[in-house]
Structures are given as structure tokens and as C-alpha cells.
Amino acid sequence: MYVEEEQCLVCAAPTKGLHFQVNACRACAAFYRRSVKSKLVYRCQRGTGRCDLKTKTNGKPLCRYCRMKKCGNIGMRMEVDWAHESTCSPADIDNSFNQSKEVYKFSVPHVDGKRLIYDTQPLIAAIKENIHKNTVATVKGIAGVTLSPLQQMCHELTKFCNQHAPNMCDVELVNKLDSKSYMKFMENYLLRLVKICTSYEDFVKINDDQKFPVFRHFYQCFHYIERAYQTMILFGYETTDLRYLFEFSQAIDVGMTKLASGDSNEDEIKRLFQPIKERMFDHLLNPMKVLRPTMFEIVYIAVNVMWSLIDVNDIAPETHEIAKEIIERSANELHNYYIFEVRIPNYCSRHSSLLKLVAAAESLLRSKKDALLIARFFNIFETDFFTCELNQ
């Protein structure tokens, strides 16, 4: 029996059935389901709230804000609430995790000559204690479908980015870096990343002795990706803009903000870090602005960063095998995302651009370590945080 195809009321693609009680294609239904389940908040690509969802451009996904708005306007509704079915509620998980921040009294940084002194041991102890916890919350929805590990990571990273997404009016453009403010930011940032890892099933399953080296590698590379993404969201897509979101509520202008503190020489530091600044903008931030990755793509990048362990010390052979399987599985999920949700059949170029962002972050990490080693050897400056176990 022939079933006449109708148009999806969201994007005008052919559809043969009802989803969420309306004529909608599977891709838009999947998009709506994930958005509601993860409580995602979007911004309009054009800033108008009136994007054309029926005209597709190869290589460019539909505006998620306008797509979600259209889903609501045509009457899509979730009849079954998404619920956490773990042994404890999300609030209990967060409370149990946050207790660690009350146990430890972190060091107060201070500058002595050309050295930034900071006792890293309390922070490292807090990370090592919390990193062995299991805060995975099994999220189930319609028909009892459980989120995959990649979707778990998407759920947690979306919450992380939304919680720390600043408003333009709340961000201060500073002309000099404050070491105390930066270290307070890093303490909070690192513990939040630990929470993301312990809520991610694939990470929880690896041996305990592997968790710290994997986390250490992940945080150092992902920090560049996440800060670049938040900078893009906040300041827009103009590639000549030299502003960079350094902390949650402070931004720097790379061409104007002073980097030196104490007795350090500003000109020496600028010469040392100039190549890193150029690489940051030329190979990471500006390509990201051109690509405009979705949150799902950022999560795919994060997974690749976490499990690309070839150059990481103290990684067991079985962990390398697990990492290989995770990366392959994530690539398959990304394929399904491109084909069925954003409908980009020829996505090879976009996928290649995502992997280039991973390579750029890893290259920036190596360059930073080299620059810090040179700074220490020639007595330009020294910082305890970047020479500790956490940044090896």
C-alpha cells in the first residue's frame, strides 16, 4: 500500500508519519527530543529569530534556535518526562561531589620576584579523590531508550557550558591578568571537569590508576577548545577580533592586555608567547569561528581529545584498546548525526575540520609547555601551577 508523503512542518522534508503528534520528519523529532531532554538553550545564527528552515545549505546546519522555536509553534510536546533513574538524584550527586570543595582549603597564590607561588597539592588531592567517584546518572526517556556514552558526555558538557556561558554585560575586558583570580577560576574549572568525567560512563569504566593521567591529558587540551568555543559564542564570528574569554567573567585583548606580574619583563614574555598567540588564532579560534561547530560537534571533539592517548605516559595497553573502540563508536554516532539530523550527506570536509581543531589544541599544549620550560630556564618567569604534576 502506497503512503503519500507529506512535508515536515518544521523543515519541509518529506515525512510519512506523525512524531510528537504532528507531521514532522525523524531528524526534527530527534532534534526536539534531545533538546528537551538535555534542556538545551540555543542562540539564533543570524540574531533575528526568523531563519529560513526550508532552504538547506550544504555544510551548514539549520539554525537550532529557530528550529526549536518552530517545533514549539507547531505543537510538539513531550508527553513522557525524561527522568534520571540512578540510585541517587542529580541533586544528591552534585551535593556529594561538591562536598570535596569544602574539605580542602586551596592555596592563595602570591608573586615573589619572577615566580608565581602556589601550593598545588590541596587541589591535586581534591581532584584525585573525586576522580574515582561514579556519578553516572542513567537517563531514560520514551520507550526506555538509554543515552549512549557520547550522549551522556553531550548532556554533561551542555550543562557545563550553559552554567558558565557569560552574558556580554557581565564580562570585563581587563588590561592586566590577576593571578589570584585566575587560580580561583582554575580550581573551580578543574573540579567541574572532574564532575563531567565521573558522569561519563566510558571514563568511569577504566581502571582507577588510569583515570588521573587520562584526565590530565583531557583537561589540558580541552581547556583550549572550550575557551575558544565560549569566546566564539560570546564575541561572535569576526576573525579580526582579538578578544579572548580568559575566565568565566574576564576577557583579555591579546594585543593590549599585560601578561607580566612581579619583576617579570613584559617584552620578554610577549616575545616568548607571540608564536602561541598566533597559533591560537590562526589554527584554533578563527577556524572554529568559520566552522561554527554545534554543541554535538564540540562534544565529539572532546571525546577525541580525551581518548587520543598515543603520546600520553602511563597508559596501559588495555586502555589504548578501550580508547580506540570509543573513538570508532563516536565516529559512527557523528555519522548518524550528520545523516539523520542535520542532513549533511557529504560531511567529509566538516569532519576533517573538527579533527584539525583537535590537532591544533594538542599543538598549542606542546608549544605552551616548551615556552614555560624556556621561561624557567632563562629566568624570565616561573609558575608553580604549570610545573606541577597536573600539567606534566
UniProtKB/TrEMBL annotation:
The keyword Transcription applies. InterPro entries: C.elegans_Orphan_NR (IPR051152), NHR-like_dom_sf (IPR035500), Nucl_hrmn_rcpt_lig-bd (IPR000536), Znf_hrmn_rcpt (IPR001628), Znf_NHR/GATA (IPR013088). Residues 5-83 form the Nuclear receptor domain. Residues 149-392 form the NR LBD domain. It comes from the Eukaryota. One of its GO terms (molecular function) is zinc ion binding. It holds the Pfam family Hormone_recep. PROSITE patterns: NR_LBD, NUCLEAR_REC_DBD_2. SMART domains: HOLI (SM00430), ZnF_C4 (SM00399). Keywords: DNA-binding, Metal-binding, Nucleus, Receptor, Transcription, Transcription regulation, Zinc, Zinc-finger. Belongs to the nuclear hormone receptor family. This is Nuclear receptor domain-containing protein. It comes from Panagrellus redivivus (Microworm). The lineage of its organism: Eukaryota, Metazoa, Ecdysozoa, Nematoda, Chromadorea.
